[in-house]
Structure formats: structure tokens, C-alpha cells
Specification:
With 407 residues, the protein is α+β, with helices and mostly antiparallel strands. 35% of the residues lie in helices and 20% in strands. The protein has two domains: 35-87 and 266-405, DD-peptidase/beta-lactamase superfamily (Beta-lactamase, 3-Layer(aba) Sandwich), CATH 3.40.710; 93-262, 3-Layer(bba) Sandwich (D-tyrosyl-trna(Tyr) Deacylase, Chain: A), CATH 3.50.80.
């Protein structure tokens, strides 16, 4: 064969190889895994989905770079940041002081799990520390560890998920009661329905479907004080003065601490299983206070969690507004949620577990999300993210289809 013909043949073969390779690349790029074809049709630009194998390799995704509202799946990021900054064994505390005027002072540090069941034991310990001095003046409440703040996305409804946060709070800043023919009574045996609570209930002018309501910013600390006073008086401690807010001073005598019986690990488990917004933002603001100093503020929490995302998760794309996911200003893409899931794997035992799925749910008006882990019948493990920001589209139905594919 003449040299010129060999050259032409060589060039022709090279061109054909390039065409075939390019065609294959295009085909591979545009054709999704056939197993997920039906699921792919349900995902539009206001949604996203991602499935990765146990090594983090993405098996299937669609619109995985779109930033969307994650709803309560955002609590996974708050939990990771808390573990990073505070540690799993961190325990919240509440402190008690006596000043020179025989005022008893209570200082809160944001304990999200300070509940009625604990108060009798705390007040009994205070009685023992006081000794013979059981006649006191004022009860002073110090909630200065948190600066006042309002969580974006929280409304003025009476629903528990809209409960206000505060450094000194009890019972998740909610009241639980039931109506009787003669008025109202407590719906939980461990929590007396004190007069402060009855006065709050009487301000409600419309019927309630559920008899658990939240407290506003101006009521949270005072309710805690009234409930403490109730149990203190049951221990024989009397007050001749008033109840008021104020600060602990350097000259005040430290009486005792109350260290929560629950660790941060316990708090995160309760947070994820009940999807409690109050717990999430108590932890979120505590993170800010621990990193940048007191008082804790929403802005400090935003800065600390955003810094965690940048330095540990290595992403600049997560938009943080608060810690629970109730704010639509929280924005994250499925690929970044996968980074969170990869980091959360050692702690997945804290999440909801049903059959082959370990997951966190998220729900807002017109937002439905799921994120977690799936194991198929062969033992293969996958991470998955489903974000639906299309009104009326439920993520649980897409998850059900995904479970059928990964069976």
C-alpha cells in the first residue's frame, strides 16, 4: 500500500474511533441508570435526588447541584456541628446562687431538656444546701446566657414547633393541659397547672385542636421561674418578695449546679426522633456561645455552623439561617447533604430506623424531604437524599419507589 493511502486510512480510522468514543460519552451522560428511570421522571427542577454507594460514589442523581429548602433534614448539620464543637458527652447546666439580700438566683445555660420530672429533685437539693435558711426574699431569674432572638420561619402560632427559645426554659417552652367542666387541669401528672399557665390559657380566644401550646419570648423565663417556685415551696422554702429577671453578680454566693442527666448524645437522639425545633435551636445557639463567647445569639450560631461547613465539610454552598430547618432561608444542595450523611455515618444509630432505612424526615408547607441510609437485601448500603420543593409532592412516595429499586 502506498504511503499516501496508509496515511488516509490511518486518519479515517482515528476519526471513526473519536466519533464512536464521543457517541458513547454522550450516551453515557444522557442516559440515566435504567433502574432509576421511573424515579427520574418524577423529579423536576424544584426537586433533587441523589443515591450514593457505601464508598460515597454517586450511583444516580438528578438536579443534585440545585440548592433547595431541606426542612428538618437540616438538623443533621446542626447535630454534626454540635458534636464537633461541644462533644457527645457535653452536658447542659443550670446554676443556683444566693446573694447578700437572701435572693435566690437561677441562671440558665440553654438546657433544652430541663423538664418537670427533674424539678422536684433539684429543689430538694437546694433545700438541703440552704440548711436552716428557708425564708428567702426574691426569686431572680438570669437568662442572660442567650441574647433575645427570634428564629426566622417561626410564626406567632400556638403550635409547639413555634415555641420560643431561651437560656432558662422548662418543658420545651410549652404548656400541656385539658379542659374540664370546671375549667382546666394539667394533662401531664408531673407538671402542675400553675396559675401563670392558667392565665396564659385564658388569653386564647379560639378553639384548640390540640391542648399543647407554646410560650412567647416574654413568657418563657417567667414560666420557668413560677414552676421552680412551686416545687421550692413544696420543699418548705418561702419567698417574701417578688419574682423578677436579673443577673448573677460576682459577689453572689454559688449555691449549687444542676448538671443535666442527659448528654448531648441523648439530646441529639431526642432531637432527631421527635424533630424538635426547640431542642435544635437551643443547641444551635449554645454552639455559637461556646465558639464566640456569651451571650449566645442566632448570628453566632450561624457563623459557627457555617464555619464548620467550610472547614470540615469543605463546602461554601450551604446557606445557614438557623438550626432546625424551619426557615426556608436554609438552603442546601443534595451533593452537600451527601457530605453531611457521609460524616454522620458513625452516629446514624441516633436516627429513626424502619426496616431497611435509617433516615430523617423534613416537612414544611410545600416542602417534603428525606435523607439517610438504605440497605438492600444483599447487604449493600446506600446513602440517599430526596428534596421535594414542588408543592404537593411527597418525598415518602419517592422513597417507597427507591426501596423497590434497591431491594
Amino acid at each position: 500500500m502506498k504511503p499516501i493511502l496508509k496515511q488516509i486510512l490511518k486518519q479515517t480510522v482515528s476519526i471513526l474511533v473519536c466519533i464512536l468514543c464521543f457517541s458513547g460519552m454522550v450516551y453515557a451522560k444522557e442516559t440515566p441508570d435504567k433502574r432509576f428511570k421511573a424515579i427520574a421522571k418524577t423529579i423536576n427542577a424544584r426537586d433533587s435526588i441523589l443515591i450514593a454507594d457505601e464508598y460515597g460514589k454517586i450511583v444516580f442523581s438528578k438536579y443534585a447541584d440545585n440548592r433547595l429548602a431541606p426542612a428538618s433534614t437540616f438538623k443533621l448539620l446542626t447535630s454534626l456541628a454540635a458534636i464537633h464543637y461541644l462533644g457527645l458527652n457535653y452536658r447542659f447546666r443550670t446554676e443556683f446562687y444566693i446573694d447578700e439580700h437572701l435572693n435566690l438566683k437561677i441562671k440558665g445555660y440553654g438546657d433544652p431538656l430541663l423538664v418537670s420530672e427533674m424539678l422536684p429533685g433539684i429543689c430538694k437539693a437546694i433545700r438541703q444546701r440552704l440548711g436552716e435558711q428557708i425564708h428567702l426574699n426574691n426569686l431572680i431569674l438570669d437568662d442572660s446566657y442567650f441574647a433575645p432572638f427570634t428564629v426566622p420561619g417561626v410564626s406567632d402560632s400556638l403550635k409547639p414547633y413555634d415555641a420560643a427559645n431561651g437560656a432558662l426554659s422548662v418543658n420545651f417552652n410549652t404548656l400541656c393541659f385539658k379542659e374540664t367542666p370546671t375549667g382546666y387541669e394539667g394533662a401531664e401528672p408531673q407538671t402542675p397547672l400553675i396559675q401563670f399557665a392558667i392565665d396564659k390559657i385564658r388569653t386564647i380566644t379560639h378553639p384548640l385542636k390540640k391542648k399543647r401550646i407554646n410560650l412567647t419570648n416574654g413568657e418563657t423565663t417567667l414560666y420557668a421561674g413560677h414552676l421552680f417556685r412551686y416545687f421550692l415551696e413544696k420543699e418548705g422554702i418561702s419567698f417574701s418578695g417578688n419574682m423578677m429577671t436579673g443577673n448573677v453578680e460576682k459577689t453572689d454566693m454559688f449555691l449549687m449546679p444542676h448538671i443535666s442527666e442527659f448528654s448531648l448524645e441523648d439530646a441529639i437522639e431526642k432531637l432527631l426522633l421527635s424533630s424538635n425545633n426547640f431542642i435544635a435551636n437551643q443547641i444551635f445557639v449554645t454552639i455559637g456561645a461556646s465558639v464566640y463567647g456569651q451571650p449566645g445569639t442566632l448570628e453566632k450560631g450561624v457563623s459557627a455552623v457555617s464555619e464548620y461547613a467550610r472547614t470540615v465539610l469543605k463546602t461554601e454552598n450551604i446557606q445557614v439561617a438557623e438550626g432546625s430547618g424551619i426557615a426556608r432561608e436554609n438552603q442546601i444542595c443534595a451533593k452537600d447533604m451527601l457530605k453531611i450523611l457521609e460524616k454522620f455515618k458513625p452516629y446514624r444509630y441516633l436516627m429513626r430506623h424502619e426496616d431497611r432505612v435509617i433516615y430523617k424526615t423534613g416537612t414544611l408547607s410545600d416542602v417534603s424531604t428525606r435523607a439517610g441510609y438504605i440497605e438492600d437485601s444483599g447487604g449493600k448500603k446506600y446513602s440517599f437524599v430526596i428534596f421535594c420543593n414542588t408543592p404537593g409532592k411527597p418525598a415518602h412516595k419517592i422513597l417507597a419507589k427507591l426501596l423497590k429499586v434497591l431491594k
